[in-house]
User: Fold this.
Amino acid sequence: MSLIDLANPTRFLALTARVLPWLSAATVILLAIGLYQSALAPDDYQQGATVKIMFIHVPNAWLSMFVWGVMSIASLGTLVWRHPLADVAAKAAAPIGASFTFLALLTGSLWGRPMWGTYWEWDARLTSVLILFLMYLGLMALWRAVDDPSRAARAAAVLTLVGAINLPIIKFSVDWWNTLHQPASVMRMGGSTLDKSFLVPLLLMAIAFTLLFVTLHLAAMRNEILRRRVRSLQMMQASRVAFSSGPREDGASKEVGAT
Amino acid sequence: MMSLGPYASFIVTSYAAVALVVAILIGWIVLDYRNQTERLRELDRSGVTRRSGRSAADAS
Assistant:
């Protein structure tokens, strides 16, 4: 099945019905393995047992940016290629991305209190991620504010692409500014600085959370397609009612015009 | 028994928050799916069909 075939919502629904059970099972298994490996990981010589927070904080932080990246590609699909499922993908991803960003901020804050002595610091990394979270909320508000999905899609696509400027700012904030947040230790030139005992559970949890996102995203896209189908059928139903009661309205307008 | 040291409450709260938010996300998506399929079935029962002639509730 090619990408062109998936442009057909009915084919996409058939595909999701087939793959969602397998994706859900794979996500549960990988999450279980990842959590088990996280529990077995030794304490860090500086952080102690709080290093376990990293196994959920880092995947959520990565996904907060990854989801916006997915939405940016989908926005290009809306504006450039006019792919019929592109705005469905972008709209469905926003609440999931907002949740991951919220969790990244919350778990980071819960790690910061014992390690930094504060829940929050207005440094470049924390502030730029907070801005990302607010952008997710703004985007969701925009989708809700505009009734027509195609009009909302174009406005949301432009906002998403403008917001994508924040992604490199978040990534390189720890290099460009003097921040309390530590620099990159996994995705960096010269390889990871993490010991294998921490890197393995971290990568397992990252893959598990990515699978979780793919599963939730496909399910949310399926819901959005069904929502649009409901909307178009309700509009069809309303136009039939209006058509069947049309002559009476004409008569009423003539009466008004006569007075 | 795994020992979480003096900061156990921070670690447990972090994992509980992630579990709660993910559970809310899954619950919301499942309920939304049920809601949309039920609305499609209602439209189908009231005789509104898709232009393709397929049942409104036919998701495949």
